[in-house]
Amino acid sequence: MEINNNYKLLIASTSTVHGSGYLEYIIDNAVRFLGVDEIIFIPYARPSGVTYDDYTEAPRKAFFAKGIRVKGLHEFNNPKEALLNAKAIFTGGGNTFLLLKTLYELDLISTLREVIGKGIPYMGSSAGSNITGLTIGTTNDMPIVYPPSFEALEFLPFNLNPHYLDPDPNSTHKGETRETRIKEFHKFNSQPVLGLREGSWLEVQNGNIELKGNLTARLFQQGKEAVEIENGLLIIG
């Protein structure tokens, strides 16, 4: 599967890393990469008990400090039309199942594919990154709701596992590790899975995928040993 040359994607493992504020670690890169003065924020993965308005305030404040306006998609009377006219789109984290279910219910999946396919910049973090893969089958979230399909936006030719954690040799926990769970996924699914560690992100443009941040990523492929991926252009095959 080739990457659409028009895609301009910034796909982050998380919005917040330990010891810093919301988007603090990535905001300058995001401003440079997106290159716009206005962003539509998709809040549909919002954490339980948080309103769309409250959830939108975090990216609004972060980008306002950089001279960029943010408006929540829920603020528009016609979400589809809003996306068709967007300068850039940012989808935040929360629950991936809830996010995908809502996008299907509002009939926005095809709209997002159309808009991003034409080159409108897209930024995702956590759940917002999960939906850029082939399916959401490797999210860490609980299936609190059931979307009509696990098929996602399919911008990337693989699945993602944001917040990827390495096994802790000092832990007394004897349950499955993240790597074990992904290997279980590959018993029944063939698509590669990229584990993105906290503080890492992908930049996709001109048909290329580049790993950014200070950490390596971990690539899992069916029937193969997992490998570490260094920063730079990503080639999966």
Outline the structure in words:
- The chain is an alpha/beta fold and 237 residues long.
- The chain has one domain: 3-Layer(aba) Sandwich (Rossmann fold).
- 24% of the residues lie in helices and 19% in strands.
- It has an eight-stranded mixed sheet with strand order 3-2-4-5-1-8-9-12.
- Strand 6, helix 7 and strand 7 form a beta-alpha-beta unit.
- The termini are close together.
Helix content: 10-25%
> Overall mean pLDDT score?
95
Structure annotation, total helices: 7
Oligomer: single chain
Largest sheet: 8 strands, mixed
Provide the CATH superfamily. Answer: Class I glutamine amidotransferase (GATase) domain
Order of helices and strands: EHEHEHEHHEHEHEEEEEE
Task: Tally the structural domains.
Answer: 1
Largest sheet: spatial strand order: 3-2-4-5-1-8-9-12
Which runs of at least 5 residues are low in confidence (pLDDT < 50)? none
Proportion of residues in extended strands: 15-25%
What top-tier CATH class fits best? Answer: Alpha Beta
Give the structural class: alpha/beta
Tell me the layout of helices and strands.
Blueprint: E1 9-12, H1 27-34, E2 38-42, H2 52-64, E3 69-72, H3 79-84, E4 89-91, H4 96-105, H5 109-117, E5 122-125, H6 127-130, E6 159-161, H7 178-185, E7 193-195, E8 201-205, E9 208-212, E10 217-220, E11 227-229, E12 232-233
Parallel strand pairs: 1-5, 2-3, 2-4, 4-5, 6-7
Antiparallel strand pairs: 1-8, 7-10, 8-9, 9-12, 10-11
